[in-house]
Amino acid sequence: MILAAGRGERMGKLTIGTPKPLLQLGTETLIGRHLKRLAEAGVSEVVINLSHQGELIRNHLVSSGRWGLRITYSYEGESSLDTGGGVICALPLLGDDPFLLVSADVLTDIDFSSLTFSTGKGLLVLVPNPPHHSAGDFGLTSDGQLTAAPPRLTYTGIALLDPALFRNFKPERQPLRPIFDSAIGQGLLAGLRYDGLWLDVGTPERLEDARKIIQQRKKNL
Q1: What global pTM score does this model have?
Q2: Nucleotidyl transferase domain location, by residue (predicted)?
């Protein structure tokens, strides 16, 4: 599942007529890069949640789709259900098996096919804290379990999750964080530290950073 329902307000004028997932990075859009890498990782079906300007995303993907993926859309109306509510709303489309969750507004070179968990209800990918998020989100124990205790790393917006993790939560507007916190308190979430490329493309400045990275690493992204 790709989370693509946010309004992209931090992008300012760049997202007035263009949804953030459709902002261009080299020859691909943000969301197009994810779809390409998901297809390369062996994924065959993708759910994308949509809200504000969602039809623009759908129309773009219909007209330019070339990844061999079956794409299903979860519509949330003009106001998004936030990250947690968006996943819960899409559960009927996701089935019963663990699913990969990816935020549309990140740039990464992680191998999605390498992600796995053997116990609990999910795995969150973490990175060293970037300057704009120095406090981090979650701690990581020596045996790979997530904890609320410091030192903390930053959640990437990439996770492998069991749908059962959301079973007791209502399909209403809510972020993912309280859902993750509840699961961490029960020892149900593992974590993976990733030291490769990852960038939160959430502001015009970081979009320019991402474009510079794409220019420097054309063959690898």
Answers
A1: 0.95
A2: 1-115
Spatial distance between the Cα atoms of 157 and 104, rounded to a whole number of angstroms: 9
Range of the structural domain that residue 106 is part of: 2-220
Average pLDDT value for residue range 4-30: 92
Pair 18, 11: CB distance under 8 Å: no
Q: Read out DSSP for 174-218?
A: --SHHHHHHHHHTT-EEEEE--S-EEE--SHHHHHHHHHHHHHTG
> In angstroms, rounded to a whole number, what is the distance separating the alpha carbons of residues 136 and 92?
32
**Longest CA span, the chain:** 47
The angle at the Cα of 36, spanning 66 to 89, to the nearest 5 degrees, equals 95
CATH number of the domain residue 145 falls in: 3.90.550.10
- φ and ψ of 116, to 5 deg: -160, 160
